[in-house]
């Protein structure tokens, strides 16, 4: 199985190819069938054609194939029947995307080059424009639990995926829905501002055969950081104390790695398997003043993966993740020496 097999798509469904089924784990079927025949076979014998939702699924899929052959998976393109399929990103938004609830600029969306999957709002008239997801722009976040300050307008420059991650970590999500975008509070915040801001609208043309939408792609067509293992962090195979590790990262890259959600945890733990130490340092530090843990990179410690309840009176403690087992986090003395991850931006 190779990544090139991800391009065996709906256009060629009449051709015959091998295929891969999903049933708890992936099963490689060494038979040649069309895509429709393969889907029918998998649904009769297993669950469905293979779906990929996490970075670790790609490795599992490749392991299941056991040979370098192209194989069908359950991904197909809906653009043949609905070329303008859009969705608001925040799943809890009450408003669904409908053609009469839009504010597209004239002749938009136009999907230039077939790669315009994300949307910016253009001040001051708040027109929507579809563009590629890789340029950096300011963005707008929504706070679902704060009625007095429902919106955060950031002037930081991020691509769409980075903006989404920031909004999910610090707030609720990217602003979603025409109703939110026309809220008087947001209108007031945008008053006098110029330029383009990311919003939570994106194009969904790909779907898995089990009916679920696919926005995360295993190939690097949409997002510049869609493969974070190679682009956003680097494993340093040198044993250093926590202070030596953080100084190394800040001198040569950006900082020690922090883990703010389950997706990042999966990325880091997969790379951690290549470490030469029992643990890898994280940007976690214990403060005796507040008697709590914090990320030195200023993110909130919302995502937690401690091996057990962490209580300590020792001020010289930092967080490290085990490189094997369940990849749990442990409190370790600062003077211990481990490998570590540096973030590149």
UniProtKB/TrEMBL annotation:
CDD domains: CLECT (cd00037)
C-type lectin domain sequence ranges: 21-142, 151-231, 228-343
A Pfam family reported for this protein in Swiss-Prot or TrEMBL: Lectin_C
InterPro entries given in the database record: C-type_lectin-like (IPR001304), C-type_lectin-like/link_sf (IPR016186), C-type_lectin_CS (IPR018378), CTDL_fold (IPR016187)
Keywords per UniProt: Disulfide bond
Top-rank lineage group of the source organism: Eukaryota
Annotated protein name in UniProt: C-type lectin domain-containing protein
Organism of origin: Sparus aurata (Gilthead sea bream)
